[in-house]
Write a structure and sequence with these properties.
The chain is mainly alpha-helical and about 625 residues long. It has a five-stranded mixed beta sheet with strand order 1-3-2-4-5. Strands 6-7 form a two-stranded antiparallel ribbon. The two termini are about 30 Å apart.
């Protein structure tokens, strides 16, 4: 799925020759890096926690400070940063750093000069160096570096190169810095998840493992596991599906929920809001469905014809992962285009599953399915924000679709449509609510410290529960129910659900006899559909749409780069494997179609990456449009 825009990994590592580093003795010390502002009140409060951490950990802790003065919010902050740099040229950066934070506001230029004089600095030299371009440039470099790293407010904390979004209290930060096993595992997992292609790598590993096991002596055990029937209900026969079917209809419901939420977000605030920008991925997705199907059908007739859909799906995780790895060779506008195309492609895939591959269709069951959809609409109109009513109705919809013979995973898309959203809140009242709760807790703690032993601990007092409820309410209001669901579902979809589906679906035997009737044609049709048909359909549709002036090309994109991205759209995903199973239930042709999908995807990934890697640097939108034939 689409990657988050947040930059959670420190882009420029700590450099002892440039950065201001305090402590850090010993081998591989924990590194605490702060982007700070000397006039920021929250930085001043955090400083006391940092002092406790340095006292507890001693010189093992490497404390790094980078400037991020907010001159608009804190006039004089930029001067204070330059003053610390000027003091640093006389070898007194940390003394000035401490003096600026210890000085109570207001902190005017006169106060800064007094602090410098109190440190015994050469004041003539200090005055020159505060005003010279070197100090200004150094502060500006840190500011630019911070913005590039996604810093928007102070203090922003990085621990061992990963942004720290945990609590700022002493014990939470100490645990993150001391690197217990749990914290190390969590940090390693976060670092891996921050890799642009991490989801694609997990999916590739799962598919590779399934292929390896299915073509090894463990193949009988693998087949037994994926074909084992698992029943749910009062009796085993009430709802019994194989492991593979539970993955394709059950787990993929969560994946399609995420797809639906992304479609909805793009239509309201993303790449699909601007009409001309939205037309191009829509048209290209349709062209990228029709052309592969035509290539497949040109090679397959009769009993092998139903497999045309296997070559039509684009894998967003793979395509965006490869684009991210190519860095600046893949312009941002091109990444947005591919993401939008893949989202529209998912809509088309779901429609294909519903229309062309219903299994044992029973139209009567569509009535309770329609009732469930109507009930979900009512819940949305009544602004029911609790999650359990939607979950209950989604289960009923899933059961109705399954009984009707339609792929029940589509219930996830319906849920995504009706999950309620809320207007963005005014921040002021939430700030007041959170500040009131924390101020009350701070006062209660100070009162308890003044009378030790006379009162129970603050956490046992009613004010603790009251404050925690208010803080939770203020925090929860920042996200709508749909946003919260998407944030919770995305990691599970990327790192659990899709890999499990790949494990159950890609374990095909490569020992198929290509001389068997139709097998070679199915493999070739699926592979060429992805490798040739997909980019051909995307490029022809784009050319027609731009010539008709109903669409515009992605920003900063050359024809060369666009061609590379079109080829990458031939990289399929587990939905393509699901199409193969749906087209050829209980048939060897399903395995042949999967082999073709895997082969075509590998070739499309390699060729698309090569074309993009050899493309010239990005250009202006006007030039890109002129290059389209």
């Amino acid at each position: 799925m689409a990657a988050s825009g947040a930059q959670l990994t420190l882009l420029r590592p700590v450099d002892a020759g440039r950065d201001h580093v305090r402590g850090g003795e010993g081998r591989d010390p924990p590194i605490l890096l702060i982007y700070g502002d000397y006039l920021c009140p929250y930085c001043r409060r955090l400083r006391h926690v940092i002092d406790r951490l340095r006292h507890a950990m001693g010189d093992r802790l490497a404390y790094v400070f980078r400037h991020f003065p907010n001159e608009r919010a804190h006039p004089g902050a930029e001067f204070a940063s330059r003053a610390s740099e000027a003091a640093g040229r006389q070898g007194r950066f940390w003394e000035m750093h401490d003096a600026l934070y210890e000085r109570q506001p207001p902190l005017t230029q006169a106060h800064v000069l007094e602090a410098a004089a109190a440190l015994g600095l050469d004041m003539d030299r200090f005055a020159r160096e505060v005003a010279d371009d070197g100090a200004r440039a150094r502060v500006a470099e840190d500011l630019a570096d911070g913005r590039h790293n996604g810093v928007t407010a102070t203090p922003t904390i990085f621990i061992d190169g990963q942004r720290y979004d945990g609590a700022w209290d002493f014990y939470s930060m100490l645990e993150a810095l001391e690197r217990p096993v749990g914290a190390r595992v969590q940090r390693t997992a976060q670092a891996f998840a921050n890799l642009p292609a991490s989801a694609a790598l997990v999916l590739i590993a799962a598919a590779g493992a399934a292929l390896a096991v299915a073509n090894s002596p463990l193949a009988p055990l693998y087949r037994q596991i994926v074909e084992t029937s698992i029943g749910v209900g009062a009796s085993a026969g009430s709802l019994a599906l194989t492991t593979a079917e539970w993955c394709s209809e059950g787990l993929l419901t969560v994946f399609f929920l995420l797809v639906g939420l992304e479609i909805r977000r793009d239509m309201t605030a993303g790449a699909l809001t601007d009409r001309r920008a939205a037309v191009l991925p829509v048209v290209c997705a349709i062209g990228g469905t029709l052309a592969p199907a035509a290539v497949y059908l040109a090679l397959n007739r009769g009993g092998t014809a139903p497999g045309w859909s296997a070559a039509t799906s684009t894998g967003i995780a793979f395509a965006l992962g490869i684009l991210a790895l190519l860095g600046r060779r893949a312009p941002t506008g091109l990444k947005v285009f591919v993401a939008a195309l893949a989202v529209v492609d998912d809509i088309v895939s779901m429609l294909i599953l519903a229309v062309f591959y219903p299994q044992d269709f029973h139209a009567l069951w569509l009535l309770p399915a329609a009732a469930a959809i109507g009930l979900m609409m009512v819940l949305n109109r009544w602004r029911i924000y609790a999650g359990w009513p939607y979950l209950a109705v989604t289960v009923a919809l899933w059961l109705s679709l399954h009984a009707a013979g339609v792929n029940a995973a589509l219930a996830g898309v319906v849920l995504a449509i009706f999950l309620p959203t809320r207007p963005a809140p005014a921040v002021g009242p939430l700030l007041a609510q959170a500040a009131t709760a924390l101020a009350a807790l701070e006062y209660a703690q100070s009162e308890a410290r003044a009378r030790p032993g006379e009162t129970p601990p603050v956490e046992q007092e009613p004010i603790w529960d009251w404050a925690s409820r208010n803080l939770s309410a203020a925090s929860a209001r920042l996200l709508s129910p749909a946003d919260r669901v998407e944030r919770a579902v995305a990691p599970w979809a990327a790192y659990v659900i899709l890999p499990l589906f790949a494990l159950s679906a890609t374990g095909v035997s490569l020992s198929l006899d290509p001389r068997s009737p139709g097998v070679a044609r199915v493999i070739l049709g699926a592979a060429l559909g992805l490798l040739v048909g997909k980019p051909l359909g995307v490029c022809l549709a784009a050319s027609a749409a731009v010539k008709a002036k109903i669409a515009v090309m992605p920003e900063d994109t050359t024809l060369h780069a666009f061609l590379g991205a079109a080829i990458l759209c031939g990289v399929s995903d587990p939905v393509g494997l699901l199409m193969a199973d749906s087209a050829f239930p209980h048939s060897d042709y399903a395995a042949a179609a999967k082999i073709g999908v895997l082969a075509g995807s590998i070739l499309a990934a390699a060729l698309g990456a090569l074309v993009l890697a050899t493309s010239p640097p990005p250009v202006t939108p006007a030039k890109a449009m002129a290059e389209v034939p």
